[in-house]
Amino acid sequence: MARSTAQIRPLGESTSARSRGKQSYSEAFKADAVAKAKAAQSVAQVAKTLGISRNTLSTWMKDDAPAPKSLLEAVQSGDEMASLIALRDLYAKQISDGLSGRDLPPTARLLRETMREIAELEQRQREEAADAESAPDEDLDPDDL
Description:
mainly alpha
């Protein structure tokens, strides 16, 4: 018969993060990690450098993200990404709240199109950031100022 390695503990006794082998991190460490990840090209590389999992760092980044704007606020701000995200959230909520059989296909199509636009915008932003990093710094001539 195989032996179980599970430990028995009294009912009601909780296991702490430390006893389960989970590492706890200070808020300052988390904030620093999130800032480094936002500035870097690769979340995975930042996580590896800091000795934490990519999933942990991604969770911290989601927790640090600002609250989503309403569609009206996003459109008024002129922020294209915020507008698309608010629109995506609106379509997703409409679908989850239950639409009639007639309204579901067009709303699902709009949701897919919005998600595609978000992905395209994110790709453009990544490419622009990479181009900006790879562009050589121009020497400034004090006479030009």
